[in-house]
Amino acid sequence: MTHLTVKGRPKSFNSFYKKYLRYLRESPKQDKALIPDQIGVRVVCPFLEDITAVEEACRKNFSVIEVEQKGSDYSFKEFGYESIHLLVKLPDAILAKWKNDFVSVAEIQIRTILQDAWAEVEHELVYKAEFTPYDDQMKRKLAAVNATLFLADTTFQEIRAYQRQFRLELDKRHDSFFKKVEEFTDSTIFQEEMAGDENAKDKNFTFPAPVSSRSIDDLLLNALYAHNKGQFDKAIMFYSNILDRAPPEKTASIIYKHRGMAYFAQSRYEDAAGDFTASLDLDPASYKSAYYRAVVRQVQKDYPAAVEDFSLALSLNPYQPWALYRRAQAAYHIGDYPAALADCEAAIVLDPDFGEAAKFKAVLLSKLKM
After folding, report:
1. 215 is in which domain, residue-wise?
2. In this structure, is residue 365 part of a structural domain?
3. Would 170 be classed as within a structural domain?
4. What phi, psi does 79 have (nearest 5°)?
5. Integer Cα distance of 241 and 221 in angstroms
């Protein structure tokens, strides 16, 4: 869940007394009126999806007496703020300590930031002023503002969902890349069968052809879809299309890195190394590009170049147990067993559960007869 803002307030005496008298007028037979929102808590959420999560959390932690969906009964022509109001029973520990017959419940309001902003303004313009905007022009203006805020909330949520999907595709692509790395590098030392084949690809999955009006984000998402489906030619086409648009250097560095990984998946190692180099030229701090180029050199059995690139990656970010492990493998192949052992032990220090490194350490100790 994203960052939430919680506001609380007791109802002022004037507000309480005004509502109290109104309740007594509406129900004259009662000798006292129960005002449910004497104590109020408002939870303000950045996104629409957070509202459901907050409501579920409230239901788990409080005894919910009543739920009101403010604004749910408005037609598309009407205006009014939307909000979820939960009436909850105060915990027994608080009731026992307080001993106040007038207050046994509290109200929890759950809104987005924009819903809360609209509610605050509407409260000042309409509720406090006891004003009903019968003028059609005023109604249209208020309805337009309300609709704009609703559209903004919806758009923010769509962007949030897009980002989440985008991040998922990136993670899946990284998993695929590292699986291929395992197949090439681990087997050169341990001669073990790598676990399983890649997941079956959906050959029926299609993508729209890139057009000039399509945004870079759309093209990149299409590229990642194609990449994850094993459609590397399509992925490379989308990556290249983005690069043809001359994006900012930071963006271009990322695209070169992605395209290099697609080339790697096709065993086009020189093309992959070229893209990782281009990525590094544009962003010299990209330790991942240095690491990926080192992996390519290791697969090509250019172990001295691999050691150099792993060292570059580690100079940019020393907290990479896998880079240490890979450099140890490269050092092993050029006969530098002490350096390999030192890297292997350093990798285990960073990740004590690094099983592959522990296994490799045993091989090195045997070589060194230690």
Report:
1. 200-284
2. yes
3. no
4. -120, 160
5. 13
CA distance 111 to 93: 28
Q: How big, in percent rounded to 5, are the helix, strand and coil portions of the chain?
A: 60, 10, 30
Residue-by-residue DSSP string for 273-307: HHHHHHHHHH-TT-HHHHHHHHHHHHHTT-HHHHH
Decide if pLDDT at 44 tops 70.
yes
Could you tell me how many residues make up the chain? 370
In a domain, 28, yes or no: yes
CA-CA-CA-CA torsion for 43, 159, 74, 107, nearest 10 degrees? -10
Neighbouring residues of 333: CB distance < 8 A, sequence distance ≥ 6: 188, 301, 303
pTM: 0.54
pLDDT in tens, 195-253: 333 433 444 444 444 444 467 777 877 887 888 788 899 989 999 998 998 888 988 99
The pLDDT tens digits for 142-154 are: 778 878 888 888 8
Segment 126-135, tens digit of pLDDT: 655 555 555 6
- State the Cα–Cα distance between residues 85 and 294, nearest whole angstrom: 57
pLDDT above 80 for 311 = yes
Supply φ then ψ for residue 65, to 5 degrees. -90, -40
Examine residue 351 and state whether it is found in any structural domain, yes or no.
yes
